[in-house]
């Protein structure tokens, strides 16, 4: 079947989708967006977390056909999404991230050699600055979940952070640096206002 | 496989009547796991996420009519006062991502003995509104669970909503697991005090082939509270009464040994949870009583 939906602010179309396929498979294998990770396919790890109509969900547990006409934000579109939020919406009418850009998207924060390129969202920059990324497999899901939490709780308590990230497993960091990163992003967000 | 996408409740019922083997999919947090792991290859998937009615709830005089697909997150955010037991139970389900998708309709559809909504529904008192093209019926929650992962729905029926009694007293939910998040209950216990009818109801999860009430324990406690005039005098429940209640709750279990725990551990833990949650709810009943008496 064919599925039409919005990915990172742009309309997309996936063809030859099998009816039992997950949104995660469609994103990774049909649209070429491997940012959302596949680690368990059973909702346990959160590494496939995306936003579906604004709400964080496990993409591995959403049937492809269920996203018809809906809006999905993946980690590849997070920087642009956060930017638009900070600017209070899309002024130019040409916002969002094209499939081409999303496929080539890579982190080029202040830490990178690459110099030019995409700006990072505050949460992405904070993860780099706090050393919250080791192997990086859990990172995309954590970024999407943490960014959404900061949207709801600009001044999160540690309990808020732990609760919001309780569906995301990390096998490397021991979580402390991840907590630091989210606290850092929240603090910077507070300064900016 | 075919993906059926009804746009309304009527269309969904018609589709289920035409294809009784179709597997409904709401939040997908049970169904998709089975499909991803090839445990299930249904001929038809019946997507319910376009049926807006299923995401709504109404609080009536005595009960809340909770749409089958209202996600746990919404229950926690909006129904804490009316349905405190279910709100507490919802908060223990999996993770935010799962709670944003999954709901009570899916929990009832799966009818796992470990489903967290069940003890809360049993304790509060509830009826499942099942509908087909043939009509609507209300299934008492006690009659809904018919076996391990089996329920009373007919092949052409869908769950439209659950009617849950609004709390008229304190409620609690308790669950044993290895950590707070993402844990399937080793066992779970729900309790609801109903001062209006002067009764206490219970629900036990993961300690029998189906979710069950501890009926003998309820009867014992109702009689003991009545005899001692506890509802009126608001005294602390005698430790021997609490202990007997806990023992009878443990006795209502018919658990198995599995990877999550042994049968004897489950029985023991249900007794402990029964005593604790009875104490917590009774303390808050006494507190509320003192408060209203003080005000009078
Ligand atoms: C990682 C993980 C952790 C979990 N942890 C918990 C937990 O801690 N506690 C817990 O209780 N559960 C847990 N679950 C199980 C699951 O999230 C719940 O059972 C949830 O309530 C299912 O709701 P759903 O809408 O996602 O159901 P779905 O997967 O969409 O459906 C579940 C079943 O119900 C049927 N169904 C759905 N809606 C209807 C309807 N309206 N009428 C008739 N049949 C219907 C479906 O056909 C299917 O058989 C967990 C699942 C995962 C993946
Ligand atoms: S891959 Fe989806 S939660 Fe693990
Ligand atoms: S950084 Fe390796 S899993 Fe989290």
TrEMBL record, chain A:
InterPro entries: 2Fe-2S-bd, 2Fe-2S-bd_dom_sf, 2Fe-2S_ferredoxin-like_sf, 2Fe-2S_ferredoxin-type, 2Fe2S_fd_BS, Beta-grasp_dom_sf, Diverse_Oxidoreductases
Gene Ontology terms, MF aspect: 2 iron, 2 sulfur cluster binding; metal ion binding; oxidoreductase activity
Keywords: 2Fe-2S, Iron, Iron-sulfur, Metal-binding, Oxidoreductase
Keyword Protein biosynthesis found: no
Occurrences of domain 2Fe-2S ferredoxin-type (ranges): 1-78
Keyword Oxidoreductase: yes
Identification of the protein by name: Oxidoreductase
Organism name: Streptomyces aurantiogriseus
TrEMBL record, chain B:
PROSITE patterns cross-referenced by the UniProt entry: FAD_PCMH
Pfam families hit by this protein: CO_deh_flav_C, FAD_binding_5
Residues of the FAD-binding PCMH-type domain: 1-169
An MF annotation (GO) of this entry: FAD binding
Record bears the keyword Oxidoreductase: yes
Keywords assigned: FAD, Flavoprotein, Oxidoreductase
SUPFAM superfamilies named in the record: CO dehydrogenase flavoprotein C-terminal domain-like (SSF55447), FAD-binding/transporter-associated domain-like (SSF56176)
Repeat listed as a keyword: no
UniProt xrefs under InterPro entries: CO_DH_flav_C, CO_DH_flav_C_dom_sf, Diverse_Substr_Oxidored, FAD-bd_PCMH, FAD-bd_PCMH-like_sf, FAD-bd_PCMH_sub1, FAD-bd_PCMH_sub2, Mopterin_DH_FAD-bd
Protein name stated in the entry: Carbon monoxide dehydrogenase
Organism: Streptomyces aurantiogriseus
